Amino acid sequence: MSQIAVPAAFIRGGTSKALVLQRRDLPQDEATWPALFAAMLGSPDPNLRQLDGMGGGISSLSKICVIGPSTRPDADIDYTFAQVGVIDDSVDFSGNCGNMSSAMGPYAYDEGLVEGPRDGEALVRIHNTNSGKVIAARFPVRDGLAEVEGDLSIPGVEGTGAAVALEFLDPTDTAGHGALPTGNRVDRLTLSDGREVEVTMIDGAVPSVFVEAGQVAGDSRTHPAKIDVDRALMDRLEEIRCQASVAMQLTPDLAAARARIATPKVAMVGAPSDYEDLAGVVHPADGQDLQIRMISAGQAHRAVPVTGALALACAAAIDGSVVQRQIASGSDPQTLRIGTPSGIVTVGARLDLDTGDITAAKILRTQRRLMDGKVYVPRGKLSQT
Question: Keyword Lipoprotein on this protein (predicted)?
């Protein structure tokens, strides 16, 4: 055959979709995975449509998840995430996808990869190999399958579904340089246009850097499409992201930082104010604690990456951070209401009052398996690499 076939499931997790593969069905040599994954999703595609693959033309739809047996005793499964470029064929394994994390427990349960009750609530402990962290996923099950119908609504997804409660345990220090890799709650960066900005660089669920929107001539209420076409703003945010990457010791230089598309995440934050979401719903200021507009793999996210929201929650728990400065007075750090382009998302971080450590970050998501089958890749696309 002129194509190879790999068993796969196509699953929505939160506000993302991905091909979910099992480790046993992939080549043993992981060096071959990037070319395979890019071909599966139809990258590179300068037309931003990925028509010759399973991708959807934007970062939240250009993802691969790999599930396998756990390699550590405190987890039930291993989960590896790959962010695939759209315009190019880059494949980045440096960070996790929190949205797709919500689908990993139910998938493993349905596939019989883990044990659990036939009815009631299942608990699957997920070892994310990208971050080296464990995520506890709790979700309802019925007749031996993960339930998908429920009454939880999440911004960016039409309708409702069964809740998956995700608790990211010991979420900070995923890259090995501490919760605050620079040692500072706030750092000052100088951009190429002479602009000086204050940022908070934090590694909580995913390495991230936050800047107040006004300092980069941005607006935390802006439609993502307007952010994407504002090249001056996007260039400033990318410059911040790359400088932060070096300062956080994620990459040795700016060139390497530009090539590492998934981390750190960069986001503009702002104080609560009235805004209209992508569905045309107006959210009043008193229904929010702060606002965020996050860039993911070079594009303004249409909602917010879950790991980015959790990093925001971790930063909000740190006195004096750029994020904490934007939070409405009287807000609860364990139930922060974040204004995103798709609506309000609630996240929280749990702080140990004795040590000051962030012990967990949590969020609710929904998920649903959309299709099972095989994904096909032309052999010629693999032989070209």
Answer: no
319 in Cβ contact with 185 (< 8 Å): yes
| Beta-carbon contacts of residue 247 (< 8 Å; ≥ 6 apart) | 181, 182, 187, 201
Which CATH fold would you assign to the domain 3-163+367-383?
Answer: Diaminopimelate Epimerase; Chain A, domain 1 (3.10.310)
Residue extent(s) of CATH 3.10.310.10 domains in the chain: 3-163+367-383, 187-349
Nearest one of 118, 114, 115, 105 to 145, comparing CA atoms:
118
Rounding to the nearest 10 degrees, give the CA dihedral for residues 313, 315, 318, 323: -100
Taking the model in full, what pTM does it have? 0.84
Q: Which residues lie closer than 8 Å to 188 by C-beta, 6 or more apart?
A: 196, 197, 198, 199
Per-residue confidence band for 384, with pLDDT thresholds at 50, 70 and 90 = low
For the stretch 71-108, pLDDT in tens is: 999 999 999 999 999 999 999 999 899 999 999 999 99
3-state DSSP assignment of residue 307: helix
CA distances from 357 to 11, 170, 363 (A): 34, 9, 19
For domain 187-349, the question of CATH label 3.10.129.10 is answered with: no
